[in-house]
């Protein structure tokens, strides 16, 4: 029998993700892809996959999958406990699932998301060249449901010599660079952005993370024609409270972008949960 993972529980949310579908913004298609790309890439490396192979993106744990044949898997992202047939082990290591074995990803004590890679990748049909689910556009494979059978592909490279990796530690701050509309803001807006300990609100998903703190004042109050957005854009709507855009961001937006997260900071932002403090460095 061909190897597959059978979904027995999904937790709050579980999606198929790869590195997305870049280069289609002119068609109105967001890149999408893994929210924490570093975690996605690491999970694939631990099982000898190409970094672009599809993984399972799990939000706040709860995923249970059963292997129909012996497979190698790895769980990365937020450090958490992983159970194989009930026996606890750590994330960020290569694990073997024998035929009939069950993998459980427990909710992480901190952080939000985990990525589960299986050796050979998940061979579900691609949509516009990607196996990523875009939750804003409703594009790509449907969110996982109990009973789904996910076929496993054929390995194309040997297993790596290293079978474990250090678990990530949260950065002291999210690194930012000036955005294209910094000149639309008051002179102290940049120092306020960097000098404030912001709080993550309840509005957290793959589209954006909304922060709470002092209002960032604008000096240009004219309407801004819609312009392109990117993952990591720090957009400031009329409320003055910043939004951090994630992988499923709209293709365009009509509010000024004060700053842009670096790629590694955008990965770290994907692990923010409501109530977390956030600092920016730049």
UniProtKB/TrEMBL annotation:
Keyword hit for Isomerase: no
Cited InterPro entries: CT_A_B (IPR003778), Cyclophilin-like_dom_sf (IPR029000), PxpC (IPR052708)
Database matches in Pfam families: CT_A_B
Domain Carboxyltransferase: 26-281
GO molecular function, one term: hydrolase activity
Keyword vocabulary terms for this entry: ATP-binding, Hydrolase, Nucleotide-binding
NCBIfam families on file: urea_amlyse_rel
Protein name per Swiss-Prot or TrEMBL: Biotin-dependent carboxylase uncharacterized domain-containing protein
UniProt source species: Friedmanniella luteola
